[in-house]
Structures are given as C-alpha cells and as structure tokens.
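Good day; I would like, with your permission, to put a structural problem before you. The record follows directly beneath this note:
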Amino acid sequence: MLIVVTGPPGAGKSSWIRAHAKPVDIVIDLDLMALAMAGPSADHHAHTPALMRIVHRARQAAIHEAEHVLGTTDVYLIHTMPQVKARARYKRLGARIITVDPGESVVRQRVRDMRQPTMEAVVTRWYRDHRRGGSRAVTPQSSRTW
C-alpha cells in the first residue's frame, strides 16, 4: 500500500513515519535523500540547487519504482503539498493520505527554531491552500522535543 504523508514543513511527517513504518517498508523522504547525497556535515535542510535538482529526480525514480511493489510492500512517501496531478496519481494507486498538522502556531515555532527563513513562506502557502478546501483528514502530531 502507498501511504502519502502530507503536512506543512516542521509538522512531524518524518516522525509520524518513524512511529508507523516497519523495517521492511520503503520510505521516500526528500529530506533524508538530500542528506544522504550531501557532503559530510551538511545541514539537514539547507541544500544547494544542484543537489536538490538531483534529489528531486532520484525521488521521482524512487516513486516510479515503488509503484511496482505496492502489492507486497508498504511505501511511505512524504509529499508536503501534492498538486492536482500528483493527487490524481496517488488516488489511482489507491493511496492512503495522511495529513500531519500539530497546528499552525506549533509549526511556525518549529520552523523559526529549526529551518531556514524561506520556509516561512511554504508554511503560509500550505495553510492558505488548506483553508481554501485543499485539506484532507488531519492526523494530529503531538509536540516533541526538538
């Protein structure tokens, strides 16, 4: 089964997956992929455009290959803001969509504490889009120690 985990930056999507995925499951997490491909001691969320271009292509290849094992393996995919085309693809694949959102004030504080200032705009866009009817069922993610 494909489990697509959405939510704003800093919501706890990766933590949700760590709490639910089994060792035999496949996890496609752009942040972890970037960190794995970055040089030693790279920042967890600040990557060069060149690296991110490569990581995005690798992620698309991983998603494509994962489609072939959905009958035998659970695949967890983090996709912060899937657009219409991606949502249609996930629906066609019978995906379960999980939205992790501990609340805007929690998310904004986490982003201020742990992410680049440019992520504030992504948070704003995520909440704006979800207030306009783009939201899905929300899975509350309790706060954790950062």
In short: DSSP finds six helices and five strands in the chain. Residues 6 and 81 are 6 Å apart (CA to CA).
